[in-house]
């Protein structure tokens, strides 16, 4: 069944996607939430990259298009030295095809970089 789903899915986005190799996950936290959300980066294009969250995830109530937030990014090379980067939320799209049904795609774009920080540092820019 999985093979059939993959073969029928067509990506209609304009930019070609590639697998992320610099950053593999990110962490978001919000003043109104005690939770820290750690998400795997799914793919990247010239204009940004995407993460996937379930439709019922509480993180969706904290995200709005065009918001600029501070996000902690982790690399495979230095997982104990994440970077805090100012990030813009480009889009929040409900997954409508079989590959993303039950999920939202969150499009992100890094706006500016900050120095590497300790893993326990709060996500402040």
Note the gap between the termini. Answer: 45 Å
Using DSSP, what is the number of strands?
Answer: 6
Determine Rg (CA atoms, Å).
Answer: 15 Å
Main beta-sheet annotation? 6 strands, antiparallel, barrel
Shape: globular
Mean pLDDT: 79
Q: N-to-C SSE series? A: HEEEEEE
Strand content: 35-45%
Proportion of residues in helical segments: under 10%
Contiguous low-pLDDT stretches (5 residues minimum) are: 1-11, 16-20
Structural class: mainly beta
- With strands numbered from the N-terminus, the spatial order across the biggest sheet is 1-2-3-6-5-4
The total count of helices amounts to: 1
Could you walk me through the main structural features you see in this protein, from its secondary elements to its overall organization?
With 125 residues, the protein is mostly beta strands. The chain contains one helix and six strands. The radius of gyration is 15 Å and the shape is globular. Residues 1-11 and 16-20 have low confidence and may be disordered.
List keywords for this structure.
mainly beta
